[in-house]
Amino acid sequence: MKPYLPVTLAGAELWLLADKAIYYPEHRALLIADIHLGKAAVYRKLGQPAPHGTTQGNLQRLDRLLTAYPCDRLIFLGDFLHAPESHAAATLAAIEQWREQHPALPMTLIRGNHDERAGDPPASLNIEVISGPLLLGPFALQHEPDPHPTRHVLAGHVHPVFRLHGLGRQSLRLPCFYLNERVSLLPAFGEFTGGFQVKRKGAGKIYLTGDGGVWAVSS
User: Fold this and answer.
1) Where are the alpha helices (DSSP H) in 69-215?
2) Long-range contacts made by residues 116-124, C-beta under 8 angstroms, separation at least 24?
3) How far apart are CA 76 and CA 141, in angstroms?
4) Which candidate, 49, 115, 46, 51, places its Cα nearest to that of 83?
């Protein structure tokens, strides 16, 4: 199984990546939604059990994608940092070190609802921050899945997952891309993010990610 699945959306070719991102080959752009860096640290500060190493793990996954796909631009579709507490020294040091490995790569953050609370990334990260939407080809890139008057929307925010049913009561929830006629959703890139279960409606198409591959949910 390939780690990506080419699809045509709004007349453009996109690659849905098994690692919960989109590669736009025409523009050599990597699209990432809802990475939520520093979220686990916020939960631990509140006294709740949360895994260690999620920030490093997410950044390592990003590194692998930047190595695998030729990128001229990295675009975050909102929720880069999870909360004000994500500005903790250890979290920012890890992000700074990661950024130093890609000094020439242009990066853009389209503010999401968590970014509004957390505040923008430090200027030293050299990440362009905009309120959105960002127009690229036939697409409006934004955080909230609100329709755009002239473009097809690629958005995050929802963290879509789909439940597969097996024998008896067995089931499995997997992150998914949910492509629709006017607004399409990316899965959350971050590992510690949860998900909102979606159901296929009308002409919508669901593509699951898991086990290193991407595949369509059959009708």
Assistant:
1) 89-100, 113-118
2) 117/83, 117/84, 118/80, 118/81, 118/82, 118/83, 118/84, 118/86, 118/87, 119/81, 119/84, 119/87, 121/80, 121/81, 121/95, 122/87, 122/92, 122/96, 124/96
3) 9
4) 115
pLDDT in tens, 69-87: 999 999 999 999 866 666 7
The C-alpha atoms of residue 133 and residue 185 are separated, in whole angstroms, by: 14
Cis peptide before 70 (omega within 30 of 0): no
CA distances 145 to 42, 109, 127, 155, 199, Å, are: 26, 16, 23, 5, 16
171-182 pLDDT, tens digit per residue, is 688 999 999 999
- With tokens 């939520």, the residue in question is 36
Q: CB–CB of 139/152 below 8 Å?
A: yes
The C-alpha atoms of residue 153 and residue 5 are separated, in whole angstroms, by 19
- Taking only the tens place, the pLDDT of each residue in 106-132 is 999 999 998 999 899 999 999 999 998
Q: Which domains are present in the chain?
A: 4-216 (3.60.21)
Pairing of strands 134-136, 139-141: antiparallel
d(CA 22, CA 33): 9
Prediction pTM value: 0.92
Distance CA 22, CA 103 (A): 22
Report residue 113 as tokens: 């609802």
